[in-house]
Amino acid sequence: MSIRLRLTLLYSLILALTLLVFGTALYTIQAQGTLTALKHDLSLSGENLVQLVQRVYVRPAPPSPDREPAPDRPPPSEMLSGDQAFRQLREREIARVLDAEGALVASPFA
Question: Is 9 helix (H, G, I), strand (E, B) or coil?
Answer without folding.
Answer: helix
